[in-house]
Specification:
The structure holds 2 protein chains of 2 kinds. Chain A is an all-alpha fold. Helix content of chain A is 73%, strand content 0%. In chain A, helix 1 runs antiparallel to helix 2. Chain A is globular, with a radius of gyration of 20 Å. Classes of the chains: A mainly alpha, B mainly alpha.
Chain lengths: 199, 120
């Protein structure tokens, strides 16, 4: 099932196979959510997939030896760092492109993120008005979530969706527990505003 | 809007995200599987605890000692046994005189060798 190991021993031990199975199961359990988080940040699936591939590789190389209980916050730490790095790189690229007068229009058009598609309601299925309104409301909140500052969005997703504790989320984002509470409170406030517009 | 209803909205939002993340197309799922397999190919073998590191280090040191032990023994080659007769001859007054006239004795020996060659 697994390719041969690259270390001195070419025969995988029973222990290493067990860890690999654990890692495989863990990555399967978090990969879709991580992809969704990265997609909300990058607004591009291809970019998100590339980033997630790097994240998995980094996580396995750095943290495979750590106890499995520590994996969730460590994995999301890798994911959040990758997101921040990606945004930094994009910001630098846009600044450099802005220096060239002839690339102002075309450069921005090429590199600005595409708006996220949030699975618009299926036109074929006619649903009651209340359900349609609720779908529209959720789409608006999802868009508001995608538009949140990175830290607020990550904090909201890790706490509310991934279910990490304040301490775990702090470890994942590399910030203090107090900052987690602040970011979460601000994220709630922003999302409440998005809700208010539709209520 | 009450806090309870807001919490319900967050939960609904998370459900929405969950359904979004669990309804990925086949191509994306293939990419995810490939990424996971590639990452697992780089998995470190086993968990290395500090105790195991010490055991590994000790074993390595022992192995290295065993490897170098025979060569060290080989290096300690005992010197060729020196004849006590030769030593006593050199230490005697005749021996000292012979050493002082070593050139002469070498010349005599070379002459004898040349005479033997002509005869033979």
């Amino acid at each position: 099932m697994f390719p041969p190991l690259t270390r001195a021993s070419t025969e995988p031990t029973r222990e290493s196979l067990a860890i690999r199975r654990q890692l495989d199961a863990f990555l399967q359990s978090v990969e879709r959510r991580a992809l969704c988080m990265l997609e909300l940040g990058t607004r591009q699936r291809e970019e998100a997939l590339d980033l997630l591939q790097d994240c998995m590789l980094r996580f396995v190389k750095r943290y495979a030896d750590r106890p499995a209980a520590e994996w969730p916050p460590l994995f999301f730490r890798v994911v959040s760092n990758a997101m921040v790095d990606w945004q930094r790189r994009r910001s630098v690229r846009e600044k450099v492109l802005a220096l060239w007068p002839w690339s102002r229009v075309s450069g921005r058009a090429q590199h600005s993120p595409q708006p996220v598609e949030f699975d618009p309601p299926d036109a074929a299925s006619v649903r009651p008005d209340a359900v349609q309104q609720r779908d529209q409301l959720m789409d608006s909140i999802l868009k508001a979530l995608a538009g949140l500052p990175t830290r607020q969005r990550q904090t909201f997703l890790l706490r509310e969706w991934q279910g990490l504790s304040v301490a775990e989320a702090a470890l994942a984002l590399g910030i203090s527990e107090g900052s987690i509470k602040t970011h979460l409170s601000r994220a709630h406030a922003h999302l409440r505003e998005a809700l208010r517009d539709h209520v | 809007m009450s806090e309870r209803s807001r919490q319900l909205e967050w939960e609904t939002l998370c459900e929405r995200l969950e359904s979004r993340s669990s309804s990925l197309d086949a191509a994306t799922l293939d990419r995810l599987n490939a990424a996971r397999r590639q990452a697992l190919a780089h998995a470190v073998v086993g968990r290395r605890t500090p105790a195991r590191r010490w055991v590994a280090a000790t074993a390595f040191a022992g192995l290295a000692a065993l490897m170098f032990w025979p060569s060290a023994q080989e290096l300690r080659v005992p010197p060729a046994p020196v004849s006590l007769d030769a030593f006593s001859l050199l230490a005697s007054p005749d021996g000292v005189e012979m050493l002082e006239s070593l050139d002469f004795y070498l010349w005599v020996k070379s002459q004898e060798q040349a005479a033997d060659d002509r005869a033979g």
